[in-house]
Structures are given as C-alpha cells and as structure tokens.
Design a protein that fits this description.
Oligomer: single chain
Helix content: 25-40%
Shape: extended
Number of helices: 3
Radius of gyration: 39 Å
Distance between the termini: 68 Å
Largest sheet: none
Structural class: mainly alpha
Number of strands: 0
Length: about 170
C-alpha cells in the first residue's frame, strides 16, 4: 500500500525528513505487509488481476471420486457409421512411394559370433546358476566372468574408428 506523496519541507508523523523523502523504518513496512497478508479483498474497487483469473468455487465441496482438477476425460458415446465408405482399389496407388526391400544383414565372421556368445553367455550362465541354486566351482565362475570381459573387449577392438557409411544422407 503506497503512501501519499508528502510536499517538500513538511515533516510527517512517520519520521520523514524535512526534504520530502519518505523514509519509514523497516519494521513498519514489514508490519504493513504482514497485516495485509491474509486479506483476500483488495482495498477499493480495483482488482489487481484480470477477471478471468478469478477462481469460481463450487457451492458444495466435491464428493469422493469426483474430478477436482477438470482434467479427467468425460465419457463419450460414439455411434457407428451409417454406411461404410468405399475405399479406392490398390491399383489407384499410382504415384505413392514404395521403398525397396532392405538389403540382407551381413553375415558375421566366426570371431565376432564367438565374442557375442561369450559376452552374453557368461552372465546368462551365472544367472541360471543363481536362480537354480547350483553349486558353481570357482574355475567355472572365473571362466564365465573372463568370457564376458573377453567378448566385450573383442567387440570393442573390432569396432574400428572409421564411420560405417560415409554417405548418410538421403538419395533424391
């Protein structure tokens, strides 16, 4: 709540200086803010926000299970169509793009296949032994972990640094 301007040279009861600058102590300002904190009705007829932002409270509180946010979808009744539309024949697909079939996947060499088997097989073996509560000798657990690490390292080293396809753009 701003205070009215004081004419220069007029001291006020709030301790203003004779020069006209309104100097109020900080405690009085905070007391004014705290006193107006709980007021919901602004002073005067002026509302500090647009009317569309006012919240319209319902007359009665919402019941258990009611939508309080207004975000839940409402039930809709969808009636079937009276007639089924006629779709054009497949012969009318002239001008539509039909992509060519993808090329076959390249066959992996035996070393890559073995690396994948080791990478997946080691942890799967250990997982099965834990699930079925089998006793695993130390050398078998060591081989499973070594197969996982060896398969991973083999695949990373064979990956290479160069890009796979230098032409990664669209063909027009």
């Amino acid at each position: 709540m701003p205070s009215a301007p004081v004419p220069p040279g007029t001291p006020s009861a709030q301790g203003d200086s004779p020069t006209g600058t309104a100097e109020r102590d900080e405690d009085a300002i905070w007391a004014e803010i705290v006193a107006g904190y709980d007021s919901t009705v602004p002073e005067g007829d002026r509302v500090p926000w647009p009317d569309q932002e006012n919240i319209d409270e319902p007359a009665e509180p919402p019941r258990e299970g009611d939508d309080r946010t207004g975000r839940l979808p409402r039930a809709r009744v969808i009636k079937p169509a009276e007639t089924v539309p006629d779709f054009p024949d497949d012969a009318g697909d002239e001008g539509h793009y039909v992509p060519p079939p993808p090329p076959p996947l390249p066959s992996a060499d035996p070393l890559t296949k073995g690396a994948w088997i080791a990478l997946i097989g080691g942890p799967v073996y250990l997982l099965i032994t834990v699930i079925l509560d089998w006793d695993v000798p130390g050398w078998a657990a060591f081989l499973a972990v070594a197969a996982f690490i060896g398969g991973f390292v083999t695949l990373v080293l064979r990956m290479g640094d160069e890009p796979r396809d230098p032409d990664d753009g669209a063909v027009v």
